[in-house]
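In keeping with the milestone schedule agreed at the kick-off meeting, the structural modelling team has produced records for the first pair of proteins. Each record is given below as a sequence line and a structure-token line. The laboratory manager (R.T.) confirmed that both were archived under the project's standard naming scheme.
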Amino acid sequence: MYHFSRFIYICGLGFLFCVTSVYATSIGVTPAEFMQGDPARITIEGVSRDDIDSLSWGNTPLPLFEYEGKVSSIVGVDLSTRPGLSVLTLRLVDGTVITKQVRVGSRKRTTAPLGIPDKMGGNTPTAESNLMKMFVQENAILAQLTSTTTPLWHDSFQYPLSDTRVSDSFGYVRQTGASTIFHRGTDFEADIGTPVYALSDGVVRLMRQFTAYGKIIVVDYGSNISAYYLHLSQMNVRKDELVEKGQVIGLSGDTGYALSPHLHLSIKIHGASIDPMKFFTLLGPR
């Protein structure tokens, strides 16, 4: 926690005594230690939202929101971020500048094999080459999507499924033939046709069928937070549709590059893919 003291001194003619008020502006980071691929919640105490001009992580501006009665923000550290020190900068409207250094740790790299399903050509060099081309094309489309800084979500985020058993975790490297692919999401166990829920209030930025990612829905929740729901069997929403927390937006499936039915959930903060399960520990069900 970083503390910056501000002083108010009240005294004048006719007063028999003087009053000095001291309060501290603090920047808190939760968790205190985090690594590549992690989200972190920023909490600012000692000032109101109106006292703040801006908050930034390096050169990236961070949107502010109220959470549990405190001025807050959230930052996402991408898997490709270089480990080391990063700087949070808080600027107040009175010209005060407060900085806090935060250390980003290195994520241990683990690798596991993952084959190509027969429906996509099986484990052949040709199928592998085609799959990698599809990833490049589809990622280029997804990279054009943006999230609004204004919070659309309220209170907290819920899980995308009623059953939250994880079948494959975030952040490891999948070895497919001679190619390597970072798993930038969490896979939840789900039979085909399982209801998939909106994490909170938001707006649908994309719904379409890809070759690699299958049927996909992307929901913008504001505060630079977006969720990507992959391999669906059915999509129940339209582009630009407003959705409410808990609304069934689709059904899970095994479309695209999926060896078995499941829900793949990716969460991006300002374009950085982060660990969804750690996101839920920060802004999830309470």
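The second protein of the pair:
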Amino acid sequence: MRRLLCATVLLVLLGAPAGGAEKVRLMLDWTPNVDHAPLYWAQARGAFAREGLEVEILTPSDTADPLKLAAAGRTDLALGYMPQALVAASGGIPVRVCARLVARPLSTVVALEDKGIRSVKDLSGKRIGTTVPGMMDVLGKVFARHHGLKDLEWVHVGFQIVPPLASGKVAAVVGAFRNVEVVQLRRQGLKPRVFPLEEGGVPDYDELVVLASPALSKRPRVLAAFRRALAEGLEATRRHPEQAMSAYLQSVPGADQAEEREMLDATLPFFAKDQKLDPARWRRFADFALREKLVEKPVDPAPLLLRF
């Protein structure tokens, strides 16, 4: 019995981080939103703590910051986008991907049936808005070419997506989120029409991935622990979305709870069901990115995807 007890204690000590919980800084891709609900739910239900991690969730001042800060070692982990990661890697930034949160594109092309857009062909001859320069304008033109759309006028609308659509300033916006602006438009009594980019010549991709700093990339035990806790948070969010919503709402006091719940419901089908980082899938998008001049140099995705 004494030997068994000693062996058990030894195993616990060997499995526990030195000095207690391992502190990990995780920077979001933007301000807290429903995409992050599984992270907040994992934290609230003790998933990170059970894995020996003390995770601090940080908010960036700009969407371009998290990836660069992770690559520079100024945060341990950061959320980023698969296309953004490939562009950064092409530019020589040391990108390392360890997990995924949202496994399909949320960015899409959104129009309004109220403005006479019922099929994708109705967009020919119209003014089309785009959000992120150098990304959504390129994807939008691929989408237009795929569907044979002609005589389009392209304008940059930034992230003020709902007003130009509702007012008729633009007929559609490339880069609107199917789990955010589509919900907002419906709540205004409008009838949004969604045309997925991945059905318009753009390869399917992981919308939201987790990037690791160079130092943390060399610590597979910590990365594996984080990924297990994230997987628990994702599965718990699918099974108990109302509890995940309660945990998430603590980060956005004053938010419209009914609207946020609709957004979470719209996001649930897109959360990652596993943590497989598929090199072939990344390769398809990397080849597409080179062909469409999203990147200047070829990118081999395999070294970017951490295996542990």
